Amino acid sequence: MADVDRPITQVAIVADSTRCPPGFTLIDRTYDRRDDADLWRDGLFGRKVVRFLCVEKMPPSPGRDVLVDVAVIGERDAIPAGFTCVDFTSDTREKAVKKKMLCVRYMSSDLTNDAICELILLTKGVRRPPNGYTLVGELNYMGLCYKMAGFRKPGVQMDSHQGHANDSTFHTQGYTTQSTPMNMSSLASNLPYNPTPYKKNGPLERGTSFTDSAHTLQGSHTVTALQGLPFELNRKVFSDDLDISIPQIPYKSIMDIENQYSYDFSVERSAAARVP
């Protein structure tokens, strides 16, 4: 697997470009103009403070977390649900960035087929992301963008067009399940027992309990709670013309569900904070 196709597994910020963690790639230049990608870049006097973004890319393996989302928020904003803040440099444990917070969200590679494979920074003033990239926000007036891609799981065949794993149970091609019409009229004949243990056109005869009739089923199923009560399946079940088509249900990954239904409880927290 080429390094460009590998998912990002960790994100860090360093205060010294020569002290990037082992196995990480330093992002010290902007994507478009190859300018300095310093995330701090302040003061004209005194000690120069710099910050650089670096990422780790690893082949996916069972249980390994991969990067699935990135957010840039104000330093006083609440961290989004499910995200982790990169608030300190990995080499000096100093504040990572000023006036902003970089938040990342990881997910086990067992639960997703897509992950962020590349992070880039755009030169100051450029707000149009390259094709295939998504603009997240600004860090030191530079636009932070990411690129999503499907990745191959060990031992799972990939779809060459969509980049999603396929198995014998379902396909996520185009993020829709593939359904076929189901003929309900053939179900009764395939059951290991007779679904109507009595005459099809009439109820049980007087004096015959439902338990007695149930013993005629294969496997000797016993029902005692409804003794003496007539039981009959809807006649539509036995119609030869009955043909029920199961509708296509849109596929949603764990990440899609979390994005749609995530709730940060900010209102509740603010209300609780006002309680003496």
**Helix and strand string, N-terminal first?**
EEEEEEEEEHHHH
Distance between the termini: 57 Å
Mean pLDDT: 76
Which stretches are poorly predicted, pLDDT < 50 over at least 5 residues?
159-180, 198-221
Q: Trace the largest sheet across and list its strands.
A: 1-3-2
Count every beta strand, where a strand is a DSSP E run of 2 or more residues.
Answer: 9
Major sheet characteristics: 3 strands, antiparallel
Helical content, roughly?
Answer: under 10%
The helix/strand class is: mainly beta
Helix count from the secondary structure assignment = 4
* Radius of gyration of CA atoms, rounded to a whole number: 30 Å
Quick one: overall form? Answer: elongated
Tell me the β content: 15-25%
Overview of the molecule:
The chain is mostly beta strands and 276 residues long. Helix content is 9%, strand content 23%. The chain is built from four helices and nine strands; from the N terminus they run E-E-E-E-E-E-E-E-E-H-H-H-H. Strands 1-3-2 form a three-stranded antiparallel sheet, with no helix packed on it. It has a three-stranded antiparallel sheet with strand order 4-6-5, with no helix packed on it. The longest helix is centred in the last third of the chain and has 9 residues. It is elongated. The relative contact order is 0.14. About 17% of the residues have low confidence.
